[in-house]
Write a structure and sequence with these properties.
This protein is mostly beta strands. It has no helices and eleven strands. 0% of the residues lie in helices and 48% in strands.
């Protein structure tokens, strides 16, 4: 059974950076496309970035393009989300999620295709 654990969240000032990690156990992560999602208070969970099984396909929400970068290291069973130039609107709980798939070089930012979720890590951006 795949288990996902997020880490790296915290409180930063606007313009700051954070690197989130999603670490997997129980199954080789290379079998899964991984998505990062976030949920702010009172709002629906939204897709942030995703990465294909091999890391050669990514997709990001327009709101984070040019600021957030997703990457993975299957040998370490980990996926990362580098977040730069953070803004108060990025404040949310960030979740990683996995989708078992044979599709290569592509991933989806739709939350309903992911069936394994972590418990989230809080990111707070304020001055």
């Amino acid at each position: 059974q795949l288990r996902l654990v997020e880490s790296g969240g915290g409180a930063v000032q606007p313009g700051g950076s954070l690197r989130l990690s999603c670490t997997a156990s129980g199954s080789p992560l290379g079998r899964y496309a991984i998505g990062w999602f976030r949920q702010a208070p009172g709002k629906e969970r939204e897709g942030v970035s995703c990465i294909s099984t091999g890391g050669d396909g990514t997709n990001s929400a327009d709101s984070v393009k040019g600021r957030f970068t997703i990457s993975r290291d299957n040998a370490k069973n980990a996926v990362y989300l580098q977040m730069n130039n953070l803004a108060p609107r990025d404040t949310a709980v960030y979740f990683c999620a996995a989708r078992s798939t044979t599709v290569q070089r592509a991933c989806a930012l739709m939350r309903n295709v992911y069936d394994n979720w972590g418990h989230g890590t809080q990111v707070t951006v304020s001055s």
